[in-house]
Design brief:
Purple Acid Phosphatase, chain A, domain 2, six-stranded mixed beta sheet, 15 strands, about 300 residues, 6 helices
Length: about 300
């Protein structure tokens, strides 16, 4: 598969690009020794509920970002695992972009969830305002991130044959020397809590099983399921892959906690950590260990290389 490299034009999502060179950011000594990454999901901007104080998803998002700014230290970049908008309208994405711009985090990588297809049952607004690519990847040191949006307007989600083939090719190329992290909106079947419930897991199951059978996926992050407080059953380790449900950062839509995760990768470490931040309580509830196949190597820079399927 061909790989394209992009230089960032803005401090936002990589969809705004210029040129054909990977970005090299002048890095502090801390930046080359550690990565600190925000992972959040299910903002549901544009929706509010009586049982959550009638605060819109945008307000919960802003409050969560403020809590992180006061507690987490420097965040190198953020990933958002879908359901950014509640009904897929441009106004919801514009509210998200405004909050994102004011967060102090300059680098964001998003994927689409099932709610991002709403409105006219299309993904047009998301593609225009957030990211024109539903599937992409990026390399950070010896970490390969594979970002897989919901490909169809369905609650359960899908990894189609084309995406499956691209993921397999990326794994074959990078398995020997990179830790591989996959981000999807929906859950992986028979992993974390509620992952066998109808419309909670991705299909076809054969495509997902085939990816996992490579034995090369270190961490699979997802959201989508957020109808009850988080427990350790929302994290599962099968001896090779850690599966983690990170939802949700908002109370606006059937959610009982506002939370996100801060991943930390230390140079040379054989494990990463995933710290669960409960924004309602302004505290870290758990720190989870994520075993890695390859010790972390951050390559001495803050360089990220974007990969687009072709």
């Amino acid at each position: 598969m061909k790989r394209r490299r992009f230089m960032r034009l803005t401090a936002g999502a990589f969809g705004l690009t210029l040129g054909q060179a990977a970005l090299c950011i002048p890095a502090s000594s801390d930046a080359v020794a550690r990565r600190r990454i925000l992972v959040c999901s299910d903002l549901h901007i544009g929706h509010s509920a009586d049982d959550s104080g009638n605060k819109d998803g945008e307000e919960w998002f802003v409050d969560g970002l403020a809590d992180l700014d006061a507690s987490a230290g420097r965040i190198d970049y953020a990933t958002v695992l879908g359901d950014i908008a509640h009904t897929g309208e441009a106004s919801e994405y514009n509210s998200y972009l405004q909050a994102r711009e004011q967060s102090g985090i300059t680098e964001w990588y998003e994927i689409a969830g099932n709610h991002d297809y709403w409105g006219e049952n299309t993904i047009d607004e998301y593609r225009e305002l957030i990211n024109s690519h539903l599937t992409f990847g990026f390399i950070d040191g010896n970490m390969l991130w594979l970002m897989l949006s919901d490909e169809e307007h369905s609650t359960g989600g899908e990894i189609g044959d084309a995406t499956h083939g691209w993921v397999k090719s990326m794994i074959a190329e990078h398995k020997p020397d990179k830790n591989i992290i996959i981000c999807s909106h929906q859950l992986v079947y028979e992993t974390v809590r509620k992952s066998t419930d109808h419309n909670r897991y991705m299909e076809p199951l054969d495509n997902i099983s085939d990816i996992l059978e490579t034995g090369a996926v270190d961490l699979w992050l997802s959201g989508h399921q957020h109808s009850m407080p988080w427990t350790r059953e929302d994290r599962h380790y099968d001896g090779t892959t850690t599966f983690l449900n990170v939802a949700s950062m908002t109370h606006a839509y059937d959610t009982l906690e506002s939370q996100s995760f801060v991943l930390e990768f230390e140079q040379g470490a054989p494990i990463a950590s995933a710290r669960r931040r409960v924004h309602d309580k302004e505290s870290y509830a758990q720190t989870l260990a994520v075993p890695l196949r390859v010790p972390v190597d951050l390559d001495g820079t803050s360089r990220r290389e974007i990969i687009i399927p072709s």
